[in-house]
Amino acid sequence: MRSAPPAPAAMEDFLFQVFEGIVIGSIYALMALGLNLIWSITDVPDFSQGGIYVITAYVSYFALTQAKLPFIVAWLAAIVVGAALSFVFERFLYRRWRGRAFTVLLSSIALFFLLANVAIVLWTPKAKILPPLVRGGVDVFGVYLGYQRIVVFIAAVISVALVHLFIQRAKVGKAIRAASQDREAAMVAGINIDTVISVVFMLGGALSATAAALVSPLYAVHPAMGDLPLLKSLVVVILGGFGTVGGVMAAALLLGVAEALGAAYISSAYQHGFAFFILILILLLRPKGLFGRV
């Protein structure tokens, strides 16, 4: 006996949850792409990106509310700060301990907590709310889609596409690809690894800043806001696999949709646990990730 088709209201709710998942997944994709690039070259996940995410969210918030700058200018200001912080950390800290992966890992975790505490000292733990930058929405198949969320998704996709083109077409981008596949061989070929690693870290900081600037109008800005995005982005990197921009984007969207549907139809209490359940499942069945290489 066939089951009855979903009622219109149920279908609309399902589509709305899928859209919400796609939006949050696009934010995961931005941060995960930067982590993927850094991790694939240095063999170390850079936890400091979570702290950079927090600081640049505040940069965007104050640029919009205090300086009254247009959103695009606030976004660019966040990108500059994120790239600069990431460059400073790599140049003056990580480079000193290159080859000592555990030391670099511990220092990146320390920077993550340090930046979060700097945010508490400077701006208190109280959350700051940014009004929507784009009001209104559009009805698609009976589902109301807010313009603000549509803008976030489009901006995230464009950012990922630009990074992909940079890696594929630019001379430095080709050097990044070569170094991620075999760093020693790239050095023998004459590629300046120091420059490549600095560029990769700056890209990572810029992408974390982009994610923070886009998410600020949707959610509250507070010192602990980088915790879950960082962990989810690490999950996305592992799920998508190293060495593929498309894999990171697909894994991020899948994770975002799975979380949204799980929270809506199973329990919102376990919303943030679904990511780690999926991670364990994928590691058991496909250790190299869904789309990448080992």
Q: Which features would summarize this protein structure in a list?
A:
globular, two-stranded antiparallel sheet, 294 residues, 11 helices, ABC transporter involved in vitamin B12 uptake, BtuC, single chain, mainly alpha
Q: Biggest sheet: strands, sense, closure? A: 2 strands, antiparallel
Count the E strands. Answer: 2
The order of strands across the largest sheet is: 1-2
CATH topology descriptor: ABC transporter involved in vitamin B12 uptake, BtuC
Give the helix level as a range of percent: over 70%
List the helices and strands and how they pair.
Blueprint: H1 8-42, H2 48-65, H3 71-92, H4 101-123, E1 137-140, E2 143-146, H5 147-169, H6 171-181, H7 183-188, H8 193-215, H9 227-240, H10 245-265, H11 274-285
Descriptive notes:
It is built from eleven helices and two strands. The chain has 294 residues and is mainly alpha-helical. The chain has a single domain, classed as ABC transporter involved in vitamin B12 uptake, BtuC (Orthogonal Bundle), CATH 1.10.3470. It has a two-stranded antiparallel ribbon with strand order 1-2. Strand 1 and strand 2 form a beta hairpin. It is globular and about 60 Å long.
Question: In brief, what are we looking at here?
Answer:
The protein is 71% helix and 3% strand. The protein has helices at 8-42, 48-65, 71-92, 101-123, 147-169, 171-181, 183-188, 193-215, 227-240, 245-265, 274-285; strands at residues 137-140, 143-146.
